[in-house]
Design a protein that fits this description.
It is built from 7 helices and 6 strands, in the order βαβαβαβααββαα. It has helices at 16-28, 52-63, 84-94, 106-111, 118-124, 155-163, 174-182, and strands at 2-9, 33-38, 69-71, 98-105, 126-130, 143-146. The radius of gyration is 16 Å and the shape is globular. It has a 6-stranded parallel beta sheet with strand order 3-2-1-4-5-6, with helices on both faces. It has a single domain (2-152), classed as 3-Layer(aba) Sandwich (Rossmann fold). The longest helix has 13 residues, at 16-28. Helix 2 (52-63) links the parallel strand 2 (33-38) and strand 3. Helix content is 35%, strand content 18%. It starts with a strand and ends in a 7-residue tail after the last helix. With 189 residues, the chain is an alpha/beta fold. Helix 2 (52-63) runs antiparallel to helix 7 (174-182).
């Protein structure tokens, strides 16, 4: 049975923190691959102002040099909100010989009780929580903790820096920055 990690998010933009999380969990749990799952309409966040196709291209650029990472566009292909339980159900139907690990940050671990159909989802995947500054991994649901080196970076911070014409070097991969500039995203030219 294959062991696949799923890392969901808006990836608006994808940054080195995302890559570090995926790599650390991949190594710690000896996974076969980690799939990045860009969300269409995340139920817990405001809608991204960045087109899905641009976010998808940025994720592809971010991971293209890593053979055990891949993009899974399943949520971008569906209409409506991106509920994890629906995504996992479709993936399990499509990949019956695969065991899925759902990778989440500590902020989402604390939010798990509010997730759509969480009891059902908790039976379908193995949750993996990664530490994040100012959050604890406290939840009534089973979550395996993976320690990762601390890197305090967020997509929001990067968008704000770029909008203010500040550099984001060493926060996003160069290939992602090239896509940001190519599509004039976040106030870049």
């Amino acid at each position: 049975m294959k062991k696949i990690g799923l890392l969901g998010g808006t990836f608006d933009p994808p940054h080195l923190g995302h890559l570090l999380i995926a790599e650390e969990v991949y190594q710690a749990l000896q996974l076969d691959q980690v799939w990045f799952v860009p969300s269409n309409l995340p139920p817990h966040k405001q809608h991204s102002g960045t087109k899905a196709v641009d976010r998808l291209e940025m994720v592809e650029a971010a991971i293209e040099d890593n053979p055990h990472f891949r993009v899974e566009p399943i949520e971008l292909e569906r209409e409506g909100k991106s509920y994890t339980v629906d995504t996992v159900q479709l993936l399990q139907e499509r990949e019956p010989d695969t065991f899925f690990y759902f990778i989440i940050g500590a902020d989402m671990v604390e939010y798990l009780p509010k997730w759509h159909r969480i009891d059902e989802l908790a039976q379908m995947v193995h949750f993996v929580g990664v530490k994040r500054t100012d959050y604890q991994l406290e939840t009534p649901y089973p979550v395996e903790e993976v320690e990762i080196p601390g890197i305090d970076v967020s997509s929001t911070m990067i968008r704000e820096r770029l909008a203010e014409k500040q550099p984001a070097k060493y926060l996003v991969p160069d290939k992602v920055m090239n896509k940001i500039k190519e599509h004039s995203l976040y106030g870049t030219e």
